[in-house]
Design a protein that fits this description.
The complex is a heterotrimer of chains A (175), B (161) and C (659). Chain A has 175 residues and is of the alpha/beta class. Helices cover 38% and strands 21% of the residues of chain A. Chain A is elongated and about 75 Å long. Chain B has two domains: 30-102, Cytochrome C biogenesis protein (Helicase, Ruva Protein, domain 3, Orthogonal Bundle), CATH 1.10.8; 106-160. Chain B is 65% helix and 2% strand. Chain B is elongated. The N and C termini of chain B lie far apart (99 Å). Helix content of chain C is 63%, strand content 11%. Chain C contains 20 helices and ten strands. Classes of the chains: A alpha/beta (175), B mainly alpha (161), C alpha+beta (659). Chains A and C meet through helix 1 of A and helix 11, helix 12 and helix 13 of C.
Chain lengths: 175, 161, 659
Amino acid sequence: MSRFWPLAIFFGLVAFLYVGLHRDPHEVPSPLLGKPAPAFALTRLDDPSTTITRDQLLGHVYMLNVWASWCVSCRDEHPILVEYVRKHPVEIYGLDYKDTRPEAVAWLEQLGNPYKAALFDSDGRVGIDYGVYGVPETFIIDKKGVVRYKQTGPISPDVLMNTLAPMIENLQKES
Amino acid sequence: MQMMKNLIFAGLMFLVLGVSTAPAKEALPVGDDPVVQARMMRLATVLRCLVCQNQTIADSHADLASDLRNQIVELIHQGKTDSEIMDYMTERYGDFVLYRPPMKTSTLLLWFGPLLLVVIGGAALYRSAQDRQRNVADETELTLEQKRLADQFLNRKSSES
Amino acid sequence: MIPEFGHFALIVCLLLSFIQVAVPIAGAQTGNIAWMRIARPTARVQFALVLFAFGCLIYSFLTNDFSVRYVAMTSSRLLPIQYKVAAVWGGHEGSILLWLLMLTFWMTAVSIFSQHLPESTLARILGVMGFISLGFLLFILLTSNPFDRLIPAADDGQDLNPLLQDPGMVFHPPMLYMGYVGFSVAFAFAIAALLGGDLDAAWARWSRPWTTIAWVFLTVGICLGSAWAYYTLGWGGWWFWDPVENASFMPWLMGTALMHSLAVTEKRGGFKFWTVLLAIFAFSLSLLGTFLVRSGVLTSVHAFASDPKRGVFILIFLVVVIGGSLSLFAWRAPKVGLGGRFSMVSRESMLLGNNVLFAAAAGSVLLGTLYPLFLDALGLGKISVGPPYFDTVFVPVMAPALFLMGVGPLARWKEASLPELAIRLRWAALVSVLTALGLTLITSHFSILVAFGLLLAIWIVVTAGFNLWSRIRPLPDSNLHPLQRLKGLPSSYLGMLVAHLGVAVFVVGITMVKGYEVEKDVQMDLGDIVEIGPYTFKFKGVSEGEGPNYRFQRGDVDILRNGEFVRNMAPEKRIYLVQRNPMTNAAIDTGFLRDLYVSLGEQVGNTAWTVRVYYKPFVDWIWGGCLLMALGGVLALADKRYRIEKRNSKVTTQNERTA
């Protein structure tokens, strides 16, 4: 009966290939999910003398949005965040990744500032700690400081309404 | 933009100053220490550049790749071992960043698959040779009747020639 | 209008391919000679039509017709003319058309060089090939039409990827496709034999030359690709086990096993089960490779832009062709028969061992390439499988095959004696071990891997020499001089020796490069030097300039050996005007025993640059070895028994006589 093995193995292979057609080989899942958000101590974009640390943010649910003034798709995503913050009581912190202060500040002035505070990560070290490989990326962090979700790529209105907003609401209800 | 200005400036400087007449100087390695450099490159050749289409961070020109190379140098200076540096990378980027797949339950089939293929093939070879000994022997032996006919035919031929 | 003519030609071709599939195969089943005879002309007309369509596409490129979408995506006004032609196969649609062109070419070749084949066999072969061309025509016309118009027409094109603007692009894909697609002939022969129930030594004898030619092309194609990557990518690498590279390597491995298996089936009638399966596998891997490269399922520098719709189409095609052929195989396998018997120690068993190892190697490469996909599909996370895995796994599987390469040709058919072989080979073994050890000890540092690699290479050479000597040495009862005996040796035997020698050369190349290459990554300012061994590299600065469609920065580096000037090197960094990605062009000093490789890094000061300098010993033996392998294949083809003679008698089979 060994003559049927090649056929059987082939059909198994086809099943996997079919599933594979609907996956994205570029998408890298984050190993940080369910783990504490990595620590950081960064200066504010608008005030270099003030430092914000991760621990200061414990007890709040917040979005950490990684962006940069040189990032093209961040421009698409930004208005959505600005709009969202206007209507909902959500804290968004911006992580300005490998940028220059003047250009970043000007960018926010031009496009709007949805951030409770924008943090300046000039050399990208904090980005590396968070496993950032392509801006924009967004993390959702709960009250205990644990990373609950990571979005790679720009946030679409669809994703915001159906995935992120409900998740934030649920997390805010947690003690 | 900045790069372009630098290039033009460098080009003009080159033209203006001409070829250096200073005595030949041994080139400095990139970075401070060739040993550290070599170790960094060795690690970098097995780490994947996540923003590239299948390249190591040693070969990639991408910003993230060069940032990570610098990060590795810093970790080396901090006294981390190779395995600690690999852990650092996987903590942040997951197993995807390793070109050498880790040995886990989910990758057992991957690592032992080739050996398994050879063993299965070898077993099939052995059985095939054995089968042949038995079946072909049966197939090719002449029956008594066939033998008699063959003899008849051969005798007739030799008597004709 | 010309693009529309090309498009129309493909549509007519599609209709013809329906005929080519249905009529001859039905004719073969029913014994209708007229129907069977349709196969030859339809195959040839298909080729003419596809060639015409291809010509239309080339014309569109050469006339900068940016109203054709594919031309606008792949070409540009400033592109030099030879790259405009190469750009025809620079993107997905054009390269699939090239695939089809090669297929119809092989179909036509089979239709011409087949006077000795029974009509029904030929009908089935061309019918099967026609089925494949049908699939590809549907694929092109439904999902990948190179003649689609772009309205309004673009002013200028998006240019060919600068990495592809190189002589390598002119030769590598056509060679590669001639090989991949060439395995469709062996495949068609196998299917035809399964359909007709006449799988025998004659089938093997007919299949062999076609398989060998395809294998030669594929060997050259892969070799070119590797050499091209080496001099173009700027970091001295020549093989990365990238999914697309693997997609070409797997058919090669299967094809090598197939060639050896056909030899046994032809001479001894044995291995039919194996050989048929290998013929199906080799071409299946070609098709699978086509799927992997174009469906977006895997990430690779070489992959074409992905489109799941195309992926689904090819997958369905795979299921039909491969699933169909494996089903046919499973159904007909009991009728295949066993062939001659052989003992556990015999040339047959060693060749079978060779089959097992090469097939296992191909399977391992497939496993590694697809494993990330398996885990992801099962939701078990995302991993990467790269060179560390493949290097670790491939060498142990192949090493025994290299050992067998020495023993096999000396073993007798059917029954060989292990003690006798051991005696004949003991001197070869001793010489090999001593030479390998000796060589590694006199070099800079001893490495067990280098010693092992050299041992295998020397073993192959020594046993081949031994084998050759046993065939040409003066015999006591004849006064033939060895050279005279040499001339009398069959060309296929010499081909085998040359090909195996090529493998040895290849192994030496890899072993020495991996064992002893030196890389230095340095910052260089004007006048700085860096030394590797007896060589000194002196940096003299960087100048700027313009090429036909790019701007460059060119380094000026002198090489001295023991203080004396050897030559000047000019590594470049280029920025192509349209796509704006920086590209490095390394400067290489090629030598028989070593390459010196210089590539520019980044500018780090007013006049200082980072520069990478490599010393690569024996690296050109890698490609030299591959070319020797291909030469061996050519010699095997030149064997007298393949000379085409005019034959008057036509062979007919049972089907035709009784129908």
